[in-house]
Amino acid sequence: MMKLFQSVACAVALLGTAWNAQSADAPKLNPPPGGSNGVHAFDFEVGSWSVHHRVKRATGDWFEFEGTCTTRLLMSGAGNVEEHVFNKPEGTTTGVGLRAYDPKTTQWAIWWIDGRDPHGALDPPVKGRFDDGIGTFYSDGILNGKPVRTRYTWSRITGTSAHWEQAYSSDAGKSWETNWYMDFKRIS
User: Fold this and answer.
1) How does pLDDT run across 60-118, given as a tens digit for each residue?
2) Of the candidates 130, 180, 124, which has an alpha carbon nearest to the alpha carbon of residue 149?
3) Model-level pTM?
4) Contact by Cβ (8 Å): 154, 130
5) Residue 2 within any structural domain of the chain
6) E-strand spans in 57-176?
7) 63/29 Cα distance (integer angstroms)
8) Which of 32, 77, 148, 178 has the greatest number of CB atoms lying within 10 Å of its CB?
9) What is the domain extent for residue 56?
10) How far apart are CA 30 and CA 78, in angstroms?
11) How many structural domains comprise the chain?
């Protein structure tokens, strides 16, 4: 009976090790706070998150609400999709961020689809990369009939949290006005 118990215990231990093992070429999720660049730069975001939003309205007042975000890899890690649910007092809305990595330029491109107008024209993607654990992404476009430069910034990335913000510049990047903050806390 003792031999049977030892055999079962050994088999369970081996299965547990195999179950938790990760191949050398598998994406390394949740990189250290210094972050990484390249094709694995967004691996930290894979999973489910609760998100606290702070958005600046046209009046200048700030509006806060909660939401969730789920991110999964595409194209063997060279892309990902980030699905948001926004729980606002006036109702629930959704949005999707789609990202793709270009190894030729070593940049990521990020497109946004607003669930309130899913067939609307896509804005030009913000493009950029991570340096020293901070991701910075830019695009030029038109907002309310005027040229505007957009900046997304990812920072304070850990295995359980991250910070994102969006800012606009109407003077080609000389000055910036941040209008949206998101603080992520990992659910799974």
Assistant:
1) 999 999 999 999 999 999 999 999 999 999 999 999 999 999 999 999 999 999 999 99
2) 124
3) 0.80
4) yes
5) no
6) 62-74, 79-88, 91-102, 107-114, 126-131, 134-143, 146-155, 161-169
7) 32
8) 77
9) 47-186
10) 16
11) 1
